[in-house]
Amino acid sequence: MITCLAVAGYRSLRNVTLELGSLNIVTGANGSGKSSLYRALRLLSDAALSRAIASLAAEGGLASTLWAGPERFSREMRAGTMPVQGTVRAGPVSLRLGFASDDFGYAIDLGLPIPSMTRFSYDPEIKLEAVWTGPTLGRSNLFAERRGKLVRVRTGETGEWHEVVRDISAVDSMIAQCADTADGLELLILRERMRAWRFYDDLRTDRDAPSRRPQVGTFTPVLAGDGSDIGAAVQTIIEIGDAEALRNAIADAFDGAMISVGDRFEVEMRQHGLLRPLSAPELSDGTLRYILLAAALLSPRPPELMILNEPEASLHPDLLAPLARLLVLASTRCQIIVVSHAQKLVSALMDVGDATQIELQKNMGETTVVDASAPVWKWPSR
Ligand SMILES: Nc1ncnc2c1ncn2[C@@H]1O[C@H](COP(=O)(O)OP(=O)(O)OP(=O)(O)O)[C@@H](O)[C@H]1O
Ligand SMILES: [Mg+2]
Which atom of ligand 1 is nearest to the CA of 37? Predict the structure, then answer.
């Protein structure tokens, strides 16, 4: 389980550290930094696929994703007696992401290259990476480190440092490149975990949504990000997963209704009062969305971490309590972070179980966490 998440220099997240529980709900007003937090997590998981630089580029590069405020706020700037202005930078340009879990911690630090005769001199590069054991980074528990192009790993009983790669490319992460069963077994474990983090922010339910169309069904223990393989995912849960939990979740939300999967792998719903089941194209947006969420959350192959962005969109308030129950059930199998606008979902979660509420607010353009003491976190230094 991830116990702590840290982001610095990314959009409005100038310097945020969060403590996480098994079920977390992130809320806050418009512009408080919820989506930025979601994207920061995505960027971290992209690092495990060596895709972080490419996804940063897709977001407009470092120039646009880097914190746009001053390096530091002086007391006078906070009090308003002095205008907010940048001064000569004390530290290098840096965008940092990291997390600590029960057993490992990881941090990555991205910056700008030394100017040279290339048209790519604004491409960000990975300056530093560190992997350590235990909750916080210290001198003795660091076991893999990347500085520029050099990757070192500590191995053996004596814990000797051992150079693994001398010329890793600036866009490749060491956990993606140096994970192997000989020197980098821990890196391999970490990489596989991070690659498996599952993000849902685009479950489509519009008229042309792929989830409304028949499909070729194959064994599907993990619902696709857009929900296109919903029929196969539901059938897989029925065959090898917790079919009873799925049945209960649907009956709980829709007054005893039942879902099944048709010949062409389309979901169907039997409702009290109707002579025939309704097929996917006939289901309402909210109904289909709830079924998609149930299939995602009851995956027979749960990841270590699942992140849902605004799952309540288009759900009637009556469905929020069943959704909260579903989230609580799913959080017994994997760690969950929900980013949400709906205060009602927060209250429903608090009613049915224990969730960690993370409320974000914006203060002088910077995202801060309401009423929470920051957990202990130490960045590796360049
Ligand atoms: N490079 C940057 N530096 C500082 N702030 C930024 C930067 N890029 C975007 N922002 C601001 O950060 C804030 C947080 O944006 P974000 O999209 O995370 O908000 P949100 O909480 O998801 O809001 P909403 O509820 O409207 O979706 C916004 O006000 C945005 O304008
Ligand atoms: Mg948002």
Answer: 18
